């Protein structure tokens, strides 16, 4: 059977000249502009003053260190670039830069301390971000490279960092035990608890006359023991390279450290443990530029996810599963940059039949070791007497059970709304997809702002009626408006990404490339499905 027969070509019905298309395009471009402004701020590190100070010391900026580590003309998929955005006490990016890229031909997870932000001090959000990057290393079996120049924990916030932060060192040793190498390039200070970062890495490179690694600096040593010492003899790069043995390589300068880092990765002779025979890549038949006009800028307006899939999969070929049943859950198979993928997409509210369809499809993909791609745009599960009596809870639970126990790699893209338990059924953050990215139109909450405010309004009226008192209509209306505004603000894509509810906001036009990078990274680890599931309630 030919590819054409197995994977029919999708036919697009999009009209780029329509008013809806043009309105969506304008709205999504405006949202992307807001994201770009936030990214520019994050890319600026601690600001012009501190960037200039860093450069005046003859040092390379953190992002440039990563760029020099990466292979020429290769990709870098940044993770959580807007962590901490608009949060009190945090800066956009949260003093850490990290992502997935190619070094010496090997896909790696790279992390760099943003030394221009409080000397690279660790904050509660940067701790979460670093933890997320470590998770990506572990789940996808990616070698890790850390570029360290950090003042350690942000001491005024130590109560939020100290106890949970220790897990980072445990994860380092566990990755080593799992034969996932870690390389630590020390460009500056790595003190106190941070000294264990190089201490627990597999390979350590320290920059001469710059790197300082010690449990306690000269002032603290003097306070504790009365001993007089200096930075170099206590924890300098040469001391650790010639006396203590904490350092494996002494770099002459930063460029030499980067060269040594690339050399270490090159001699790993790294091999992917997943499937290694991707098919020849076919470009989609339809322009990815169209995605700006397809995605609803107003998420209350539905759009057909088939049009999204037609611009993501190779050759716009898609084999749909159960096309005549459970129509609000779109399922089927395709390829992205030669990698096979099973796609589950929302075309509306989740009903019992669509939940059952999704659960069965997840089982089928696990049976054949095919990764899953979730395209989220849902208001959640259908509610009402009829649907409750028909068992919407047990059918929804069946799909959530399948999502929870599935073992093939999962990638989630939030293409619109993500409300209620629909977030769980479509592999939201708490269900540990390998990667999760959002479009700028994305909204996430228990329910929409109007609905939530309306529910609270009804509850308050019922409570007043039970007490036999009249409600203050004006006061109730003001409270309703304030609640709606609060929920809308807390549902935005920028609000969510600041708190690491996702791995970043992407331009819809980049979706195919992002998915391909994620799939390629996932195949560093074995791709194996399961036939073991929890109890399905029938």
- Which residue ranges are poorly predicted, with pLDDT under 50 across at least 5 consecutive positions? none
Contiguous helical run count: 22
Sheet with the most strands, sense and barrel status: 8 strands, mixed
DSSP summary, beta strand count: 15
The proportion of strand residues reads 15-25%
Helix content: 40-55%
Instruction: Give the termini separation.
Output: 37 Å
Shape summary: globular
| Radius of gyration computed on alpha carbons | 25 Å
User: What's the mean pLDDT score?
Assistant: 92
Computed structural class: alpha/beta
Protein architecture, described:
This protein is α/β, with parallel strands linked by helices. It is built from 22 helices and 15 strands. The strands form two sheets. Strands 1, 2, 3, 4, 5, 6, 7 and 8 form an eight-stranded mixed β-sheet that branches. Strands 9, 10, 11, 12, 13, 14 and 15 form a seven-stranded mixed β-sheet that branches. The longest helix has 25 residues, at 19-43. It is globular and about 80 Å long. The mean pLDDT is 92.
